Amino acid sequence: MELKRRRFVQGAVAVASAPASVAVAQVPRKRALMNVGTQHVSTNGPKADAALKLMSAIGVNHICGSEPSMEPGPEWSLESLGKIRERVESYGIKLDMLPLPLSSVQLSTSPYRATLLGKSPERDREIDSLSEMIRNTGRAGIPALKYNFTVLGWLRTESTKGRGGSMYSTLQLAKAKDEGPIPGVGVMDADRKWESITYFLNRVIPVAAEYKVKMALHPFDGPIPAPHRWRGVTEVLGSVEGLKRFITIQESPYHGLNLCQGTVSEMLREPGKEIYDVIRYFGSRKKIFNVHFRNIRGGLGNFQETYIDEGDVDMLRALRVYKEVGYDGMLMPDHVPSLDVDSDGSRQFAYTLGYIKALIRAVDAEG
User: Fold this and answer.
1) Does residue 142 have a pLDDT over 50?
2) 15, pLDDT greater than 90
3) 233 burial class (0-12, 13-18, 19+ CB within 10 angstroms)?
4) Does the model's pTM come out above 0.85?
5) Chain centroid offset of residue 202 CA
6) What is the DSSP letter of 337?
7) Where are the domains of the chain?
8) How deeply is 143 buried, as exposed, middle or buried, from its count of CB atoms within 10 A (0-12, 13-18, 19+)?
9) Could you say which of 17, 87, 100, 156 is the most buried, measured as most Cβ atoms within 10 Å of its Cβ?
10) What phi and psi, each to the nearest 5 degrees, are found at residue 273?
11) What is the CATH class of 29-365?
């Protein structure tokens, strides 16, 4: 018995005195699983090859493509979508996502107006059309679709001056003019808005689950304080609490968020302090399907969209949270400031993509 006790003590002492490097080497380093990605890349039409060649050259190997069409038709057929995916893959790029034609365009021009307004029976025909797009997306091997469910589009006031003579997209709610209910829409209170959202989700998420297509919702951009009403419309997806309710409507791994970090920051009084727990909440529940990784200065009702490196949010700290929750999707530039010497924003997007790539590399290297 005494011999056994001595051997146990000797073994314990040997472990305790082992070099720290030995102990650390036994624990695998947690990797950063996310990828740099981008959106609005031409994936069909005459500009597609040039756009894809550029993305391949600068190491952006995951993209959200452009909308095949805003209307139902042959562009959304299985054959057409398959050709788009094959074209993208020929450049060594993965087509992670496409936009469903439920976007933040003006309601008056939307071909899915009845769906957004919750008007039957017209919305049933529209949802049937959208459901067929989802089916063909899954059949074509494209894993996700992003969409928007806003009636107001996006809310901004006059742009303000930024770094180097650039102009920043801005919302100063105190200077905005509420012009009253939108013609043909009237008052859309929270109950009516939730009904239209729930009806849509109950129809399309089972289809998405069957065909293994993740449905990623973009929040309302231009959030306003409670009761979140503007021009008679209560945009319930313009608050963190609204998004929390949204993800519970369908308990499905194919129902989640296009988490626009910029837009969610706009919902907060102090985004530089609050955004990290919001990322953690949705990320730990695996409800983040892609990320618009942009920064702002200010907060709820009064903000500017800045360059990625100068807003109130510590983007390195934010990325550490994405790593912590095991997020494995795209981190994408979203809006960039406007600048007269970069009329299409291409150089500013390239700068932002490089910045994101460097952040991912830095976080991946951390223990």
Assistant:
1) yes
2) no
3) buried
4) yes
5) 22
6) -
7) 29-365
8) middle
9) 100
10) -110, -30
11) alpha beta
